[in-house]
């Protein structure tokens, strides 16, 4: 596989870019692997990369029922930040932001991580109190976050309406300057290419339909798929909104609900929006892509569903709020909208670790906000799969916490926010 660098770019430019070749192979599955990952999103592909790179485990397959990155990884609004409230979450998401900061170099693939700052608007006294609490808690954990007055917020983001008589007045904002956005497809493709280079088999159009277990020990011995049985010593399920369906086939009932979450983009315009702005109170999130489109995220539907589109009333409500907070966008046309299926836990924190079935591991529950966690989640999940024990960072995020009551309640930071 050729590396991307100035010399290879220049040499390809002189011959019409005809010599790059495929970025990853499309192999047929082998009879068995040391580790099988179910789900070819960013978290699954990243796990395979770190298994190979950090732990030297290369006899690995990633099984994807559709195409890689076709799930939530390729459908999200790409907001990255680490300003979560509790110590456990701050450590997990900050671990991820640190990996984001070196990811393009690690993968030799430009994931376009742009640290343009993520600003969370406070519209009422409750928001002000909650966000200030986050600022102080984040600082204690070494995570950057600062409080801005409405005027400072507008200076950072000029299109922001800070008129006090607005329906959603801006009383201030919390700003994480190291937050930002990345290119979602590139994350899936970069991890796929890097994992493939180290020998990982990425098998698309291969749906996992069930599990085989040892009758004596109950341990998982492989997976049934639409391409036949594939043996495995360990299996990691990383299937986002479909995790509970898959895990039920192994007899494990997951504390998850799956909701549609939707996003939409406007027609492209010149650079007009310098950062990311989130308004949790009105469920609206906005940034501008490098193509020029305004990327707008809405809230989840109120009902559970597996349809990859959201209700029109949800996006209408979001656009209503966007026009009030940024009046200059009121005449823009929306081009496309789409949805993804997000897997939501009762405490809005993920589950990363062992299950009651020996050899079966799960990484899920990222809900509306797991893109930002992709590198960190994949890194600690690879450790868990390789060693059979959690990494210190994911140790608190057990499935068992819903039995013991040791919840990590990030509802205020993650309920609908990204
Ligand atoms: C509209 C929207 C906006 C969002 N915005 C943000 C944001 O701004 N910031 C943020 O941090 N997060 C955001 N998220 C959440 C984020 O996208 C997800 O948490 C994250 O991408 C999950 O990654 P993943 O790799 O776990 O899942 P996915 O990318 O969904 O990958 C799971 C894969 O499993 C595959 N699969 C399912 N069943 C099977 C099976 N039986 N066999 C084989 N494969 C199977 C699926 O096809 C899928 O490709 C958003 C989500 C949506 C939908």
Automatic annotation (TrEMBL):
InterPro entries xrefs: FAD-dep_OxRdtase, FAD/NAD-bd_sf, Rhodanese-like_dom, SoxB
Biological process, per Gene Ontology: tetrahydrofolate metabolic process
Catalytic activities: sarcosine + O2 + H2O = formaldehyde + glycine + H2O2; sarcosine + (6S)-5,6,7,8-tetrahydrofolate + O2 = (6R)-5,10-methylene-5,6,7,8-tetrahydrofolate + glycine + H2O2
Cytoplasm among keywords: yes
GO molecular function per UniProt: nucleotide binding; sarcosine oxidase activity
Domain spans labelled Rhodanese: 35-79
PANTHER family named among the record's database cross-references: FAD-DEPENDENT OXIDOREDUCTASE DOMAIN-CONTAINING PROTEIN 1 (PTHR13847:SF287), SARCOSINE DEHYDROGENASE-RELATED (PTHR13847)
Listed NCBIfam families: soxB
Protein name: Sarcosine oxidase subunit beta
Source organism: Salinarimonas ramus
């Amino acid at each position: 596989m050729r590396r991307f660098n100035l010399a290879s770019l220049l040499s390809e430019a002189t011959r019409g870019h005809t010599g790059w070749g495929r970025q990853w192979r499309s192999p047929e599955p082998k009879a068995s692997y040391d580790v099988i990952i179910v789900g070819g999103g960013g978290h699954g592909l990243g796990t395979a990369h770190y298994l190979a790179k950090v732990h030297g485990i290369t006899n690995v397959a990633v099984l994807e029922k559709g195409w890689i990155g076709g799930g939530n990884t390729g459908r999200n609004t790409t907001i990255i930040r680490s300003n979560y409230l509790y110590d456990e979450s701050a450590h997990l998401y900050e671990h991820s932001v640190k990996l984001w900061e070196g990811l393009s170099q690690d993968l030799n693939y430009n994931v376009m991580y742009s640290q343009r700052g993520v600003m969370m608007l406070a519209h009422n006294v409750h928001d002000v109190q909650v966000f200030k609490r986050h600022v102080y808690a984040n600082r204690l954990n070494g995570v950057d976050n600062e409080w801005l007055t409405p005027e400072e917020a507008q200076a950072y983001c000029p299109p922001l309406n800070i008129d006090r008589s607005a329906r959603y007045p801006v009383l201030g904002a919390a700003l994480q300057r190291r937050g930002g956005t990345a290119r979602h497809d590139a994350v899936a493709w970069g991890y796929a290419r890097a994992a493939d280079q180290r020998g990982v088999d990425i098998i698309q159009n291969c749906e996992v339909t069930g599990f085989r277990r040892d009758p004596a020990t109950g341990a998982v011995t492989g997976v049934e798929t639409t391409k036949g049985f594939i043996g495995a010593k360990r299996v990691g399920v990383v299937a986002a909104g479909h995790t509970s369906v898959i895990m039920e086939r192994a007899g494990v009932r997951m504390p998850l609900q799956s909701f549609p979450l939707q996003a939409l983009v406007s027609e492209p315009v010149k650079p007009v929006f310098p950062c990311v702005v989130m308004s949790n109170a009105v469920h609206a999130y906005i940034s501008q892509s490098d193509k020029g489109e305004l990327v707008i995220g809405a809230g989840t539907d109120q009902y559970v569903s597996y349809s990859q589109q959201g209700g029109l009333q949800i996006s209408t409500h979001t656009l209503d709020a966007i026009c009030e907070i940024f009046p200059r966008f009121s005449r823009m046309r929306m081009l496309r909208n789409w949805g993804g299926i997000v897997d939501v836990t009762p405490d809005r924190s993920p589950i990363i670790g062992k299950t009651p079935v020996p050899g079966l591991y799960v990484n899920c529950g990222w809900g509306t906000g797991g893109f930002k966690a992709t590198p960190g989640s994949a890194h600690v999940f690879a450790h868990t799969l390789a060693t059979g024990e959690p990494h210190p960072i994911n140790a608190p995020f057990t499935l068992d916490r819903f039995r013991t009551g040791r919840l990590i309640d990030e509802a205020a930071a993650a309920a609908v926010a990204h």
